[in-house]
Write a structure and sequence with these properties.
single chain; mainly beta; Ubiquitin-like (UB roll); 4-stranded mixed β-sheet; two-stranded antiparallel ribbon; 1 helix; about 10% helix; globular
Length: about 120
C-alpha cells in the first residue's frame, strides 16, 4: 500500500447532471445495488457513515434505510481508475432492493431466458 493523501472530491468525474454511479457491495463481495450520488450525498455519506444517495425521480436525498429500516453502513469507499464511479463496501441490514431481495441483481439472462435467482426476503 502506498502513502495516503487527503481525499479531494473535486477530482471525481460527475456527469452533466452532477451525479456519479455508486455501487454498494457487501463485505463478502456480493453486489447489492447501484444508485446515484451527487457531491452533497457523497459528503453526507462520508460524514455520517450512513449511505446517502440522490434520488433522480424525487430530486431529493435518500438515506438508505430511513423508511425501510434496511440500513447501509459504510465500511469502505473506493474509487475506480477513471474516477467516474464509486464502490462502497457496506454493512447491509436486511434487503438492499426495494423488491425486498438481498440484491437488486436478482435475475440472470443466459441463452435468451431470464431466470429469477432469488425470492424476496421474509422479515
Amino acid at each position: 500500500m502506498t502513502a495516503s493523501v487527503p481525499f479531494d472530491p473535486a477530482t471525481l468525474l460527475f456527469d452533466n447532471n452532477g451525479l456519479i454511479p455508486a455501487i454498494a457491495q457487501s463485505e463478502s463481495g456480493e453486489v447489492l445495488m447501484m444508485a446515484w450520488m451527487n457531491r452533497e450525498a457523497l459528503a453526507k455519506t462520508l460524514e455520517t457513515r450512513r449511505v446517502t444517495y440522490w434520488s433522480r425521480s424525487r430530486q431529493s436525498f435518500w438515506i438508505k434505510g430511513d423508511t425501510s429500516g434496511h440500513v447501509q453502513r459504510l465500511i469502505d469507499l473506493r474509487i475506480d481508475c477513471d474516477r467516474d464511479c464509486i464502490l462502497m463496501i457496506v454493512d447491509q441490514t436486511g434487503a438492499a432492493c426495494h423488491t425486498h431481495r438481498r440484491s437488486c441483481f436478482y435475475t440472470s439472462v443466459l441463452e435468451g431466458d431470464e431466470v429469477e435467482l432469488m425470492k424476496p426476503m421474509t422479515e
